[in-house]
Amino acid sequence: MLHILFLFSLLLLSSSPSTSNALDFCVADLSAAEGPAGFPCKAAANVTADDFVFTGIAKAGNTTNIISAAVSPAFVGQFPGLNGLGISIARLDLAPGGVIPIHTHPAASELLVVTHGHLLAGFISSSSNKVYIKKVNKGEIMIFPQGLLHFQINAGKNAATAFVSFGSPNPGLQILDFALFANDFPSKLVETVTFLDDAQVKKLKGVLGGTG
């Protein structure tokens, strides 16, 4: 019996993960290049409490722009303390009529919580192109699965505020309208792949600053 207990204890020790090299955190060294696993760690001697506090979402963003909305991100690029922790957050401010255009986050799902006003929000499934739209009121939340096209609109008469959290320190972002009309994507090709006519494409490129 003693031999069995001894062997069992050896198995437990050999299968237990080592904690001697475990890191409590890895504050990003933003001066280095980001890799698949994130940024390399800032030297521990240079880490301070300020690395774990971010004030950039404390105030409302400027909504005086073409979308009447502002996104204030707290991703790893703005908040290095998030590096390696699998989380991030952003603040959304939308004036009446404001819109967060259709976009996708390739690297993370998104959880939205409305803290002021209400939003009309939705996403499009990739399997059937079914659209899921819901009015989200103050205190309510909505989830947007990873990689799916989604949007938020302030359809109310007052300003709205929401916070969105992500399952990644760097969820990525691609805005559909900007991808099509805010660059040098040749207009003829845009017309071919979107079935829009030349006048519509030229108009949208003019609004969003695209060329070609």
TrEMBL record:
CDD domains linked to this entry: cupin_OxOx
Family: Belongs to the germin family.
Domain called Cupin type-1: residue spans: 55-202
GO cellular component: apoplast
PROSITE patterns: GERMIN
Family matches, as Pfam families: Cupin_1 (PF00190)
Source species, domain of life: Eukaryota
Gene3D superfamilies listed in its UniProt record: Jelly Rolls
Annotated TM spans: none
The keyword Cell wall biogenesis/degradation appears for this protein: no
Protein name, UniProt field: Germin-like protein
Intrachain S-S bonds: 26-41
Keywords: Apoplast, Disulfide bond, Glycoprotein, Manganese, Metal-binding, Receptor, Secreted, Signal
Residues engaged in binding Mn(2+): 103, 105, 110, 150
Cited PANTHER family: GERMIN-LIKE PROTEIN SUBFAMILY 3 MEMBER 3
Main location: secreted
Compartment(s): Secreted, Extracellular space, Apoplast
Gene Ontology terms, MF aspect: manganese ion binding
KW Cytoplasm (keyword) present: no
Protein residues bound to oxalate: 105, 110
Leader peptide range in chain numbering: 1-22
